[in-house]
Write a structure and sequence with these properties.
A hairpin with a 6-residue loop joins strand 6 (about 165) and strand 7 (about 175). By secondary structure, this protein is an alpha+beta fold. Helix 3 packs antiparallel against helix 4 (about 130-145). The chain contains seven helices and eight strands. Bound molecules: zinc ion.
Amino acid sequence: MALHTSEALVLRTHRLGESDRIVVLLTREGGKKRGVAKSAAQSRKRFGGALEPFTHVRVAYREREQRDLVRLDYADVLRSPLAVGGAACTYASYFAELLDEWAPENHPEERLFRLGVAVLEALVAGGDAERLARYFEYWLLRLQGVYPSTQVCPQCGAALQDGAVLEPRSHWFLCRRCAPGAQGVPVPATAVRFLATASQVAPAALGDVTVTTEALEQLAAAHRLLLVWHLDREPRAARVLREINP
Ligand SMILES: [Zn+2]
């Protein structure tokens, strides 16, 4: 059995029998792995507090050929959303769920891993969770190559700096003149500028961006439309977030 050590983000955990846990991880070098944490319920020394969704951990695991499940030896916490607690943990679950949806099994996807770690760092440092959520959604879709252009309207070529409308059938951002009637999700100019900044800075720098709560809400509605379109459903944790942020 080959022994590996790696940094990883915990994506989710579920019970396996009385005391074992199945842990889904996004490892830095090996992509998504499913592992068994033996006696995780009792062994606080090896796994204590390390199995919460979106915890950044250092893990050691053993992998056998022809086996889908790796065996986790231990997981040490490097950074945990529990350090801030409260709503941050709900956001952390949301980020972990989205990574779980998009990360390929057993295939390295280091940019997704680094996105997750950078957003977790900013969250733990007290960054605004709504800004971080929009940043995370933007980069997640962009890394998959499916975020629509925020530069120019694909119908007329006009610049979108004065605001755009996410057209619900094509899922493109159109300029206001090309967007038909009341259809689509309006994204104001400040939200377009927020995205332009998000494309260039680390998540820790988002606090300096001037953007209103209302503009972020409109961007949230646009991102929900894009995510549901690509996932064919709404992320479970997104519903929980809506309940805590009515
Ligand atoms: Zn146009």
